Amino acid sequence: MTAPGYRIVRMETHDVRFPTSRDLDGSDAMNPDPDYSAAYVVLTTDDGFEGHGFAFTIGRGNDVQTAAISALEPYVIGRDVEDLGALYKDMVDDSQLRWLGPEKGVMHMAISAVVNALWDLRAKREGKPVWLLLSEMTPEQIVGLVDFRYLSDALTPEQALDILRRAEDGKQERISRLRAEGYPAYTTSPGWLGYDDDKLRRLCKEALDEGFGQIKLKVGADLEDDRRRFSVAREVCGPDFPIAIDANQRWDVASAIEWIGALREFDPHWVEEPTSPDDVLGHAAIAEGVRPVPIATGEHVQNRIVFKQLLQAGAISYLQIDSARVGGVNENIAILLLAARFGIPVCPHAGGVGLCELVQHLSMFDYVAVSGSTDGRVIEYVDHLHEHFVTPVVIDNGRYVTPTAPGFSAEMHPESIAAHSFPGGEVWKDA
Amino acid sequence: MTAPGYRIVRMETHDVRFPTSRDLDGSDAMNPDPDYSAAYVVLTTDDGFEGHGFAFTIGRGNDVQTAAISALEPYVIGRDVEDLGALYKDMVDDSQLRWLGPEKGVMHMAISAVVNALWDLRAKREGKPVWLLLSEMTPEQIVGLVDFRYLSDALTPEQALDILRRAEDGKQERISRLRAEGYPAYTTSPGWLGYDDDKLRRLCKEALDEGFGQIKLKVGADLEDDRRRFSVAREVCGPDFPIAIDANQRWDVASAIEWIGALREFDPHWVEEPTSPDDVLGHAAIAEGVRPVPIATGEHVQNRIVFKQLLQAGAISYLQIDSARVGGVNENIAILLLAARFGIPVCPHAGGVGLCELVQHLSMFDYVAVSGSTDGRVIEYVDHLHEHFVTPVVIDNGRYVTPTAPGFSAEMHPESIAAHSFPGGEVWKDA
């Protein structure tokens, strides 16, 4: 029996788009003109509690993404909020929906949005931020949230339990430290391809002044431009400052090795998305070809099965989870556990719309209850669109301030949703 | 300038579903109750020529798939039918839509449907079946249809040209032979999990009587059932008859090796989809663990990049293309070329709704212009739903009869579309 107040009675979706292409914010080698968008979902319980979630897209197709979320309505309505594990499995394993993936692309991102909304709802009911709600679970409860299908050659439930039990030690101390000090961030704001050298220089300086311990530059459109921009950033930041670069899947294997070779004198902290996110063996060949330059990927990796292989193949030195592409919190827990098992640090992808807001909770949970460490770990930060959220991320001296508000920090202001609704919202009416 | 009659002026979509779950047709270990469905698209030119295409799904979510096809309308309207290569690239490389994949899942299947409809249209205009239209192209024209991005570590345009030029020799002879003899087929009709032993025995006998040279059984739900059913089929078909088995992604790596080990005494011709279609390294480990039992996969492989890796890793002995999951004819040409480069025979997945109709053209093109051989090659055949097509496949003595009608054999009868439209069609009204 579902207790009063725990039954989901309504699902509402919104196609929300921000016209970011007008200013070249977010421009990179593969995404020259994104309009950062959210296929947004609100779940409501019988006593009016709300859970908010979304899939992030970059414009066209956000209507399809929103329709995919709506298709999940029959799975959610009438269900118990506490029944999250079973509900997650019901959506992922539905034999008919599964054909549309399995576990990838539009349908999987839709599940992600709904699962994250369920976590927002559950955390609000418990009066806790998601990172804390997760961190206070027992190892057994956490393992119960994970779908181990297709993982057992790399991670069994028993091995996951071992990892989580080891992290029980010092948990309270890490929670206290997190509350006092926050979590380290890096910024991509200086590095978008559409910016000129003066703007790059100015933004690098600002990043240093603001206390960030790392920045990232987009590369991959033109090698000479990349060399010039990297040397500008290196000059401003100094020889020892970590500067990562991000090719956004621009290269084939051989061209990646060649291009990275031409940039290695600038000492990239990591090279992100050198090629297709589907190409495990390609990433492994690139890592081998540019060693010891570290390779990173993950924002477009479709699910835990591909992450498993990237780790098995020794293809990546940093694993970059995304909060809203794989099957939400539940699948990301599997990925955090895989990374811990292979000893690879997780440095999440963020930016977009609300991705910083969501993913901070996962990194903080990783620190408290999984890896137990922030060494070599940073969460991406991009300084835009936070004003649309009710409890936006707060950055202080280059660190994410640990959220205290109940929920997943996922809720957008109703006025923001209304103004940016596509195509009827006021922002789009004149376009 | 687009010549009159070559400009696309209309796109129309239909959510078409067949209630196949009522009879357990198509039941397997992962798909117990599919309702075979088509997200169907019709493109019309300014002089009324029509191209038909579809994405195949198994029921729920077919509305999302149909919406994804509709989202491609702006890319197609006003375009020239002859401009197919550029149009394909525009859809696949659209920087905003790309975020929804890239090149996988619902959005990629939508592109597949549109691309295949364009080929249907083009072939009808030329008055030729698609297999012949493709076979008569020059190697340079064929290579011009392929997107080599992310393939160059396994297949370059020059290597593709070499393969195609080698196959120029004897092309006319193979066309003649194909017209006279057709292409070998195997049947899955006896092997669905939902059937009892008597029905299995009867259908095995029928398959032999009908001249099929291979059958396939679904396995993976219960080992003792599998052993019993396999022994029934072996008894009916005899010790040397090729019987493939298909687990539909049911296993993890270790359980696959164990389960296959328990069935190898029945001499499986291949083991299909032992695990997740995303798990290249898993397939390689299984192939290694059960050698020399051949592993096959492909119907759920999302794109050419994953096929590339399956071949690079030596994970499969048979490659199973699907006509409507990857980016349509164009991406399937890339996959046929990859298979030829690695010397792996292509044995397509078919069945569903209209998949036999489409994929026969690709295997016939493979025979005439790519691999030049039918050795070890068979196209799957399932005997249902063909009556809904205007030019259904014809099977004669266990072989696909080579199609002669112009187009891609993709067109459904208007009455079938109307009766099975979901949820308003007469078949669904009473459900």
From TrEMBL, chains A, B:
SMART domains on file: MR_MLE
A GO biological process held by the record: carbohydrate catabolic process
Signal peptide: none
PANTHER family listed in its UniProt record: ENOLASE SUPERFAMILY, MANDELATE RACEMASE, MITOCHONDRIAL ENOLASE SUPERFAMILY MEMBER 1
EC id: 4.2.1.68
Gene Ontology MF term list: L-fuconate dehydratase activity; magnesium ion binding
Native source organism of the sequence: Nonomuraea cavernae
Superkingdom classification of source: Bacteria
Domain Mandelate racemase/muconate lactonizing enzyme C-terminal as annotated: residue spans: 197-293
CDD domains for the chain: rTSbeta_L-fuconate_dehydratase
Keyword Lyase: yes
Cofactor names: Mg(2+)
Record keywords, A-Z: Lyase, Magnesium, Metal-binding
Reactions accelerated catalytically: L-fuconate = 2-dehydro-3-deoxy-L-fuconate + H2O
Coiled-coil positions: none
Residues spanning the membrane: none
InterPro entries: Enolase-like_C_sf, Enolase-like_N, Enolase_C-like, L-fuconate_dehydratase, Mandel_Rmase/mucon_lact_enz_CS, Mandelate_racemase_C, Mandelate_racemase_N_dom, RHMD-like
Protein's name according to its UniProt entry: L-fuconate dehydratase
Keyword Secreted tagged: no
Name of the top EC class for this enzyme: lyase
